[in-house]
Amino acid sequence: MGKSKVLKLFACCVPVKGSARSIIYDLQRRRYFIIPNALYDILQTEMGKTIDEIKGIYSADEHEIFDRYLRFLIDNEIVFECAEDYVHLFPSIDFSWESAFVLENFILDIDEFSNHDFAYIINELSDLNVRVLQLRLFSQIAKKQLDQILRQITGSNIRTVELVMPLSYLEFDSACFVEEFTKISNLIIYGAEEDVIHSHKQANIVYTKAIVRSEKDCGLVEQDLFSCNLKFFCEAQQFNTCLNRKLAIDKHGEIRNCPAMKDSYGNIKSHSLRAVLKKMAELKTNWSICKDKISVCKDCEYRYMCHDCRAFITNPSDKYSQPAKCDYNPYVAKWKGEKGFIPVEDMK
C-alpha cells in the first residue's frame, strides 16, 4: 500500500473559470470563493499530486504564493490530503440534471384588468403536477378572492406557491397568513421601506424596497439573486436557468414561456396548457439556451449561479445575446459602479 498523500478537491467544490478570474463553487455549503485564474489552473492540472511534487513545478520565489494558496484551500475545506491508494474512494459528482416534473415552474400574473378563470387554471396546473407556482399581484385584489385561490391550491397537486404582492395589500398578519396557507414557501412583499428577510414555519417572508409594477420589472442580474447550490449548478450545465421547464400566463391570459417574452402560444381562454405542451420541440429551443451558449455569459465566472433572462437581451434579433439588465463585465471583473468598470459594449 502506498503511503504518499496527494491533494484532492472535495467533490462538491467545483472551480469555474472566467475571462479575468475564476470562482470555486462550494455546492454543499452554498458559498463561493473568488480566486485568480492561476489558482484555477493549479486545481485543474495538479490535483492527484503530492504537495512537494506541485511545489517542484514552481521556482523557489513562487513557493510563498503557493503556500498561501494551499492554506486558503485547506482552511476553507476545498482540498484535502488523501492517501494515493484511496483516491478512487472519492468519486466525482454526476452533474447531469433530470426532473420528474413536466413543468418545474409556472408564473401567473394578475393586475386590476385581469379576467382569469382561476379555478380552471389551477385545475390545469394540478393535472400537470406543477412543482412551483408563482402568483404575482401587480395590483390589489380582494382578500376574499386571494384566500379562495390559495384554498384551491391547497387542495391541488401544486407543490408550493411563491406569492408576490404589494405592501399596500398587507392588511393582515403575514405570519398568520403563511400558517393558514401552508403551501406558501415564499411570501414576497414589495414596496417596503427596507429589505428584510425572515423565516416563519415553512415560508420565507421577504420585504423588499423593489417595486414590481409589471412583467417588465424582472430580468435583473444581481449578486443578491445568485444561487450557489447543487441543483441550480446541474441545471445550468445544459439548460436555461430561467426558462427551463417553465410556462406562464400573463396578465392578459396569454400563455408564454415567460410573461415578458414576446411569443405567445395562445390565450388560456381558448388553449389548454396540455395543448401548448405538445409544442414541446418549440419550447425546448428556449429551455436549452444554457449560459455556455450565451454571448459574454459564457466567459463569466458567475455563469452557473446566475439566473438568466431571455426576455430582455442586448440584441433582440439574437436569442443568444447577453442579458440587457446585467451590469457585470467579466473581461475586467468589475460591476457597474466599481472603479475600473467598463461596459462590455465599449470594449467591442
Q: Please state the overall shape, judged from the principal axes of the Cα atoms.
A: elongated
Structural class: alpha/beta
Helix content: 10-25%
Q: How do the SSEs run, as a string of H and E? A: EEEEHHHEEHEHEHEEEHEEHHEE
Summed up, the helix count is: 9
What's the end-to-end separation, in Å? 57 Å
How much of the residues is beta strand, in percent? 15-25%
Radius of gyration: 24 Å
Mean pLDDT: 95
Q: Characterize the main sheet.
A: 8 strands, mixed
Organism: Geofilum rubicundum JCM 15548
Protein name: Grasp-with-spasm system SPASM domain peptide maturase
InterPro entries: GRASP-with-SPASM (IPR026497)
Structure characterization notes:
By secondary structure, the chain is an alpha/beta fold. The protein is built from nine helices and 15 strands. The protein has helices at residues 37-45, 51-55, 63-75, 118-127, 143-154, 174-180, 230-238, 273-277, 280-287; strands at residues 5-9, 13-17, 22-26, 31-35, 79-83, 105-110, 132-137, 160-166, 184-190, 196-200, 203-208, 246-249, 255-256, 328-329, 334-335. The model has no long low-confidence stretch (mean pLDDT 95). This is Grasp-with-spasm system SPASM domain peptide maturase. It comes from Geofilum rubicundum JCM 15548. InterPro entries: GRASP-with-SPASM.
